[in-house]
Amino acid sequence: MGLRGPGAKPVKRVPREITIKPKRPTWMRKGLSRAGRVIAFVQSLTITAGADAGKRFRLRSWQKAIIRRVYDPQTADGRRIVRTALLTMARKNGKTGLVAALALAHLCGPEAEPRGQVYSAAADRNQAAIIFREMKAMVLADAYLSGRVIVRDFSKELEDSETGSTFNALSSDVGTKHGFSASFVVYDELSQAPDRQLFDVLETSVGARAQPLFWIISTQSSDPKHILSELVDYARDVNAGVIEDASFAGFIFEAPADADIWDEKVWALANPALGDFRSLDEMRAYAAKAKRLPARQAIFRNLYLNQRIDATAFYISGTDWNACAGVIDMDALRGQRCFGGLDLSSTRDMTAFVLWFPDAGIVLPFFWIPGAELEERERADRVPYRVWRDLQLLEAPAGRAIDKRAVARRVAEITAPFDLVAVAYDRWRIEDFKVTLAEEGIDLPLREWGQGFKDMAPALDALEDLVIDRKLRHGAHPVLTWNLSNAVCDIDATAARKLNKRRARARIDGLQALCMAVGIAAREPAPMVYDFSRPLVLSA
């Protein structure tokens, strides 16, 4: 049955002479309906994180109604009728816990079948691993399940030793997506999927099973042509009776498009757990910020109200940014600690280096662009590069390519008067630049900075807070301001943001560098300051 393997957890066995008959699980009781068994199974599991960690699951009435709608309708010979279930709602309404519990029900619970194949799917490996970790924690917290389920951490796989059923976590970047014969699939946050390839493969993988089930649980996509939007529209037609399809069950929790988005009664339409395990205080706090910041309103409507709204419109409003212009005194910055962000380009594009002085709240940006064909570049990008060059707002050395050696020397010259603590950099083309620094004898405190949600989300949040609280001055630098006006953010299911260069209206190199500088500064512990005017007292 494959009880061994990398990371395998052996099934617990009790010596024959002291064998104790385990208590029959509540979900195995006679007289329960099919949905009743699933509900009893879920409520036998232990919550493993959050304020209620250690307690049993307690399904709410709306969750029970969803489970009954999916699992109770059966054919005359006892086969489940519903084969596809769609649940779309705002974030933080317990989707992950419910997904993990349902997957376990099909792996080793009342819905398990001999040699079943259970899958959770997600847009990326990190999201896919979340469901696995949640299921693993539930198994280890349950004496009955931990005695029959084998955990393989290395491959993110679970195996039920009694039925031979297996669970695997998949992502859209998985190498091979064929050869599946799924009995149960749950696609978590389908709205984040870059394409429909993995969805289509999994949807067609259930043909060999007698009672397959495909769950889709997600907030809505902003793209009307996305596969999730197609499913939501199909669910609307099924629910309205326009289409007859008993095999499809759709549950849509959303705020109407024409509703007052600041009305708390409207919030409950997209958040069935609001005021329960979905924090009302947190939602009020984000709503207050969204009301103040136009850039956050689209996010609020998409992720908090589950509306089909594009949440990637822009980052910081021009009004807030312009209010932070201020006047910069370069001489006053001498000797002050600062942090840098370096966004290297290809040899023919723009390179940006930005310094952030957190103690003074000052931003100093520097830009390079090849000097050849500036007139053509102006027409392409629709900005006055030659004017900016003449005003020394950017450097445009002669030639068709940027000389990285000249940039390295200039960076060393720029930072010499200051206390440079760290320089955050994007991995793109950094190795050649490091070689150049070494050859020139230039020592920069370089720190790698990822461009994904993990590193960029807190950096964008930190920069936004500085702008909103008017704790930053940028001197109205026109190149940096242009970069900001071009910015477009990608949003994940947790409302984390990152800049997307490909979708940007034009260049955003300076903003990218500024975010990295602010981000690395936020990670650095504040310097210790001792008041030497006070006497030092030593205790005995």
Report what the structure shows.
The chain is of the alpha/beta class. It has 3 domains: 237 residues, Rossmann fold, CATH 3.40.50; 48 residues, no CATH class; 205 residues, Nucleotidyltransferase, domain 5 (2-Layer Sandwich), CATH 3.30.420.240. The chain has 18 helices and 15 strands. The strands form 3 sheets. An 8-stranded mixed sheet has the order 3-4-5-2-6-7-1-8, sandwiched between helices. Helix 3 crosses helix 4 and helix 14 packs across helix 15. The C terminus is likely disordered.
- Net shape: elongated
Number of strands: 15
Q: What is the level 1 CATH name of the largest domain?
A: Alpha Beta
Domain tally: 3
Strand count, sense and barrel status of the largest sheet are: 8 strands, mixed
CATH superfamily of the largest domain: P-loop containing nucleotide triphosphate hydrolases
Which strand order does the major sheet show? 3-4-5-2-6-7-1-8
Task: Output the keywords.
540 residues; 5-stranded mixed sheet; alpha/beta; 3 domains; 8-stranded mixed sheet; disordered C terminus; single chain; elongated
